[in-house]
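Consortium newsletter contribution from the modelling node. Members have asked for a concrete example of what our holo predictions look like. Here is one, prepared for the flavin mononucleotide complex that several groups have been discussing at recent meetings.
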Amino acid sequence: MFFLPMQHKAAGLSRNPLKAIVSPRPIAWVSSRGADDSVNLAPYSFFNAVSEDPAMLFFSAEVLAGGKRKDSLRNIEETGEFTVNVVGEAQFDAMNISSGNYPYGDNEFIHAGLEMVASETVATPRVGGAAAAMECKLHDTIQLPRNADDRGYVMVIGIVTGIHVDDAVVVDGKIAYDRFVPISRLGYRDYGRVTDIFEAVRPSD
Ligand SMILES: Cc1cc2nc3c(=O)[nH]c(=O)nc-3n(C[C@H](O)[C@H](O)[C@H](O)COP(=O)(O)O)c2cc1C
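And here is the predicted structure:
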């Protein structure tokens, strides 16, 4: 089958398959702090690393018609800082709770029963018990084109200023995925656990 973007129903697909096609995606569990000192935590799966040195990453937050921003984006625009926490199997329920639609200023760490741990290079707390966390300073935001409903996304590009790794997930100097089991976002309401790992050498190695 072939169809134009958002025309999936005419092709017989009941739900937009884009996120199922672009899967698995890592989940940025973004903690941020507002100018009023309130703390926020929310998951974003339009997320990836974009360069290694300097270490940089992005996530995209949807902006609703009229320009209403998600709390994470509002905070990052106000303070220029955020932290990306890794979601392992043990954090799945808390991550899901933190995606709830809470009023601005409500602290999702508290809703999800999570410990706030102070960061080193930014003022935003990180998630206690997470396998890893990356402290970031805002590099740039890019307003992506809006759709016919006047909704669009803002890409948040961050430069990593500090990296925390839980010593318990390090084996022989490498991150051991089986010590925390990364969770990835698929399409629809689906998620994946990273459990079946294999190694391969490149032709040039
Ligand atoms: C696994 C997962 C991934 C998500 N990814 C995104 C995303 O990439 N962009 C987005 O705008 N919302 C995404 N959401 C929805 C936000 O987490 C949700 O709107 C949340 O309430 C935003 O919180 P905030 O307003 O505190 O920032 C995702 C939700 C879940 C559960």
